[in-house]
Write a sequence for this structure.
């Protein structure tokens, strides 16, 4: 977590990072991610083990359903207030389905990211913080 919060204030390091910017936050600067609420410079809610990032997959094809914006796209089109006119009817319906399903199991949606949910209670009070090492490569998406 400390490394991530340090990253906000650093200039783009390489071409890979520039590619990530164009994919995930093309309309804002990296230094804006924290002030706009897309990331925490202190402690991420994920660090307490009760926050998840999820989407929906078509079980027939194995492909992600249209959500109107890719995962970790930091823009108003990822907000829960995005309208069908902004993201399309199909994406809007898919987001509603995701919201209903997660809320049924007491997960609380995050207003700025359609994919982010917090479980209604925290089981730990001290955030987890560990080094990201090569042996963790390939975990998650």
């Amino acid at each position: 977590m400390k490394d991530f919060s340090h990253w906000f204030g650093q200039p783009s390091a390489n071409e890979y990072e520039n590619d990530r910017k164009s994919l995930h936050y093309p309309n804002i600067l990296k230094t804006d991610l924290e002030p706009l609420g897309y990331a925490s410079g202190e402690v991420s809610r994920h660090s307490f083990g009760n926050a998840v990032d999820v989407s929906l997959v078509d079980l027939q094809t194995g492909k992600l359903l249209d959500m109107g914006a890719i995962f970790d796209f930091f823009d108003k089109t990822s907000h829960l207030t995005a309208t069908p006119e902004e993201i399309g009817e199909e994406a809007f319906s898919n987001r509603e389905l995701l919201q209903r399903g997660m809320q049924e199991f007491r997960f609380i949606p995050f207003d700025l990211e359609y994919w982010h949910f917090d479980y209604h209670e925290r089981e730990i009070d001290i955030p987890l913080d560990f080094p990201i090492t090569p042996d963790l490569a390939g975990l998650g998406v």
